[in-house]
Amino acid sequence: MSTVFEHMIPLSNGVQMPQFGLGTYKMTEPEETIQVVEKAVSLGYRAIDTASIYGNEKEVGEAIRNSGVVREDLFVTSKVWNDEQGYDETLRAFERSLTALDMNYLDLYLTHWPVSGSYIDTYRAIERLYDEKLIRATGVSNHHESHLMELFAVANIRPMVNQVEIHPLLTQEPLRQFCSEHQIAVTSWSPLARGKLLEDPTLLAIANAHNKTIMQVIVRWHIQHHLIVIPKSSTITRVKENSEVADFQLSASEMAMIDAMNRNERTGTNPDTY
């Protein structure tokens, strides 16, 4: 039987990025982080998303080494935080992340937020890391169309990934369409809207129809929209549950019902404030 772990999204340079992975935001307890990441890899997860601000890169790296899965079979993403941005600063931040993870390269490195006055130089540094083959793909996070257009004006290599907040309350369809037109893959963070939807009657009815949970329905919605999705959980049973979405399909009408839930409602910060 096929699994969600087999789903790949081709990036603009040909690199295959797993469509489903583990987010590690707020995994701050070291032993728990190691345990959860190890278990996720043992279940079949091959994409792990971290960031310098999460404070868990060391533990993520340790868990990956403990997993027994070779590094080349995993896709590891990290991000440069806001107070580390700028050209030289980003290069130094990357070295710190690489040292913490104890790796020779990253698969994807992102600008975490578009810090005014810094994010263009930050992305130029990411381009250099790509040219030096220290990362396999370039990307950004939390970039609106306006931020991307500014990057396009100066970039030699357009971002291959944009990681943004997406869930049924914030579908971001115009931004997703823009990214699609420019061959930028989109990753959804906060894909479950931080628990806001776990008692929604529309989602509950759809979940019951498929004998699934609301969380599984939401993950499936992301998958069927060809979004990369990285739900995070520090509960191993939830990590397993989130991945069990390959054995059902949402109908066109069910997808439309979920799409119609959009209220442009963020659970996080609007990138324009940066």
In short:
This protein has ten helices and ten strands. The chain is α/β, with parallel strands linked by helices.
**Largest sheet entry:** 8 strands, parallel
Q: SSE order, as H and E?
A: EEEHEHEHEHEHEHEHHEHH
Neighbour order of strands in the largest sheet? 3-4-5-6-7-8-9-10
Residue share in helix = 25-40%
Report low-confidence residues grouped into runs of 5 or more. Answer: none
Shape summary? globular
> Any idea what the radius of gyration is?
18 Å
Structural class: alpha/beta
Mean pLDDT: 97
Compute the separation of the termini in Å: 45 Å
Number of strands: 10
Amount of beta strand = 15-25%
Number of continuous helical runs: 10
What does this structure look like?
The protein is of the alpha/beta class. Helix content is 40%, strand content 15%. Strands 3-4-5-6-7-8-9-10 form an 8-stranded parallel β-sheet. A two-stranded antiparallel ribbon has the order 1-2. The longest helix has 15 residues, at 87-101. The protein is globular. 46% of the residues are buried. The model has no long low-confidence stretch (mean pLDDT 97).
Secondary structure blueprint with pairings:
Elements: E1 8-10, E2 16-18, E3 22-23, H1 30-43, E4 47-49, H2 57-67, E5 75-80, H3 87-101, E6 106-111, H4 119-131, E7 135-141, H5 145-154, E8 161-165, H6 173-181, E9 185-189, H7 201-210, H8 214-224, E10 228-229, H9 236-243, H10 252-259
Helix pairs in contact: 1-2, 2-3, 3-4, 7-8
What key phrases describe this protein's structure?
274 residues, alpha/beta, 8-stranded parallel β-sheet, two-stranded antiparallel sheet, 10 strands, 40% helix, 15% strand, globular
